[in-house]
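Lecture notes, unit on binding sites. The following record was shown on slide 14. It pairs a sequence with magnesium ion.
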Amino acid sequence: MSYQSYNELETVEIATRFAASLKAGDVIALAGELGAGKSVFCRAVMRVLGVTDEALPSPTFAIIQEYDADHCRVAHMDWYRLEDVTEIEMLGVRDFFLPPWICLIEWPERAHDLLPEGTIHVDIQCDGDHIERRLITVR
Ligand SMILES: Nc1ncnc2c1ncn2[C@@H]1O[C@H](COP(=O)(O)OP(=O)(O)OP(=O)(O)O)[C@@H](O)[C@H]1O
Ligand SMILES: [Mg+2]
């Protein structure tokens, strides 16, 4: 499924509709270049899930942010600064691929092989001609 977004608010709307079908145990991998809107998309998803508070204190806070939500917990990960699969695996990320977690991962290409079967892929592609235009593909 593909969606055109012409500004940040439209991406928020697309993410809000997308989030309605999520359930505990879902893993969402968000690909797209720097500044594509992965974090914008994630924050909109988290609002739908009922995240209202600050991230919980965690030793891996730079890479994994943990939140309480309404009927699940949310892990928001950014693998940008990680080098390889082993380094990412060492953080225990697999623990977040199961209920009660919903796991949102930016820069999943750092360790593609680690993603579980059934991962939902969200690709956000920029458009060289229009700075605010994005093509968002969910598969
Ligand atoms: N159509 C759009 N959808 C989403 N964001 C947009 C859009 N048009 C412009 N923007 C802007 O692009 C930026 C996206 O920033 P964001 O932090 O979400 O990117 P990111 O993909 O998470 O980058 P990073 O790889 O650095 O984590 C924001 O400043 C936002 O206002
Ligand atoms: Mg980001």
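Take-home: The radius of gyration is 14 Å.
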